[in-house]
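Memo subject: From amino acid sequence to C-alpha cells
Keywords: amino acid chain, backbone geometry, C-alpha cells, three-dimensional fold.
Body of memo: The sequence and its C-alpha cells, given next.
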Amino acid sequence: MEFKYIIILISIGFIAFLVFKEIRRADKGRLILRLLASIFMAASFALMIIPITYSVTKEEPAHEINLLTEGFTLDSISTIKGNKYNLDSTLFPKNKAFKISHIADLTYFLKEHREIKKINIYGYGLDDSQLKGLSDYQISFHPSALSSGIFSANWQKKLNASENLIVQGIYNNQTDKNVKLKLFGLGASLDSTEIKANSKVNFSFLNRPKQQGKAIYNLIAIQGNDTLSAEPVPFEVEKKQPIQVLILASFPDFEYKFLKKWLYENQYPVAFRSQISKNKYSTDFLNMKAVNLNQINQALLKNMDVVIIDEDELSAISSSDKASIYSAVNNGMGLIVRITNPKPSGNNKNFNQYEVVSSTEKPLSLKSTDDLKFNNLPLMQSLFLKSGTNNQPLILDESGKIVVNSQINGMGKIITSALSSTYQWQLAGKQTDYSRFWSMLFAKSLRKKVETQSLEIFPKFPSVEEKLRLIVNLSDNKSPKILIDSTKIYPRQNMELPFEWDGFFWPKTAGWAIATINQKAENIYIYKKQDWLTLKSAIKQSKTLALVKNQSKELIKSDKIQHSTEEEISKWWFLAVFLITSAFLWHESRVLANK
C-alpha cells in the first residue's frame, strides 16, 4: 500500500475519533464549530504530508534550454522561463523544489535532444571541456557578478636556482576597505602590496627561492584582522647550471655597473672586459674562475651562453674576434647588442636604428609583445629600431615603436636593444622591472633545447575529483607509457598529429603528484576544490564570453509552446489552517467551556 493511502486511512480514523468525542461531550455549545475545526485540523495535518497538485497551462520557449552554472543565485530563478538544468548536482541542493534537472554529460544530452537549438547559460559559465561542441548552437550568456579576489595569476612552474620567482596577476577589490596582498613562504612574508578599496590592480611579486626542489608559497589577502583568501603557489626549483655571460664593454658606464651587480647577486657566472686603450683591457670575473679575455676565440666562446656587447665595442674589436662571435651565434650562442648611436658605426652591420626627437618630455612606457607591462622608465627615449622581415619585435613603447628586437642567426639569436639606461629602474626602486627585462632578454637569446617529449596539462589549475587532461608530444609516433603515481593512463593518438597523445585522469587527493612518461618523471600539483575559486570563475566567464562573441550562428527567433504542467499547492496554507483550528479547539475547551 502506498504511503499516501496509509496517511489518508490514519486521518479518517483520527477524524472519526474526534467527531465521536465531540458528539459524546455533555456540553453541546458550539458543537458545529467544534466538529468543523476537528475535521479541518486533521485534514490539514494530512495535507501537509500528502502533496496536492493542480494542472496549469504554461507558455515557454521552444527548442532551448536554460543551463544554471556555479555563481547563479536561486533568488532570480523565478525570472527564467523554460526547462532548467545543471551540470553539477551539488550546486543547488533544492533541485526538486525549484524543478532543476541534472545533466550528467552535456554532449550526450544534446545528441539525444537534437531539437535543441539555443542554450541559455546563467552563472559563471562553462570550462573548456564543457564548451567544446557548443559551436553549432546559439549561446546566450547571462554572467553573474564575480566576487572580490584574484582574477588572474601567473608564475613559473619551474625555474633555475639562479632565477627569481615572479608572481603576477590582477586583484579586484570590490569592497569599501583596503586589502593587503602578500606573498608568503617559508614562514615569512616575502613581498606585499596594498590594494585600495573599489579598485582593480595589477600586482607583481619577486622573490628568489633559496631552496631547491618542490615548494609551495601562498598568496594571502588580508582585510583588517580577517584573512579573505590564501591561495597556494606551487613551483619547483630545478638543479641546473646558471647560464654563463661574457660582457664586452667599450667603457664601464652605469648600465654595465648595475648589470654586473645584478648578475653577481643572482649567481650568474660573469666574465667582464672593458677597454682602457687600444688593445688594453681591464677584466673582472664574478662567480667564476679567471680566463684569458685578450682574444675572443672559439675556445673561450664555447663555454659562454650569452655575449653582451655595445655597438662601439663591436665596431672596435678585430675582424677575427667578430667572426668568432658570429660563428658562435650561428652554433647556438645568444648575442645581445646595445645600440647607442642613431647611425651604424664603423664596419658594423646595420641594426635598422633611427632617431626620433620628441618635443615633449615624458617617462618611457614599455610593454612586451607578450603583453608584459613594465613600469615607466624616467627618461626620454629618442632611439628606436625599424621592423624587418627577419626581425621579431620584443619590447615596444606606448606608441608601438620598437626598442628591443630579435633576429635569428643560424642556430642562435641576436637581440638588439636601444635602451641605454635600464639601471634607472634600479634607482627608482623598480627592481622587479629590471629583473624581468634582463631575464626576458636572456630567455629570448638562448637557444631552445630540443626535448624528446613534452607534457601539457589542462585545466591550468587541476583540482581534486575534476577531469585532468594530459597532452604528451613525442619525437616519434610510439605510444607512450604514462603513470600518475601508481595509476596507469591509457593514451589515445591524435589522428592528424600522430606524435601527439592525450589521456585523462581524475585526481583523488590534493598535493604533489608524479606523472611518469616513458620513465621520465614530471611533478604536477593538484589543487583543492576551494583553491583559486575566484580565478577559476573568471576563467570560465571569459572563455564563455569569448565563445558567445565568436559564435557564427545566426540569431533564431524563439518560438513559444503551450503545455500543461502540475503545480503543487504550498504547504504553508495547510500549516496555517492546522494552527488556527488547533488554537480554536484549545481556546474553546480551556476558556469558553468554563464560562
The chain has a mean pLDDT of 87. The longest strand covers residues 226-238. The two ends are 47 Å apart (CA to CA). Residues 56-145+544-551+558-568 form one domain.
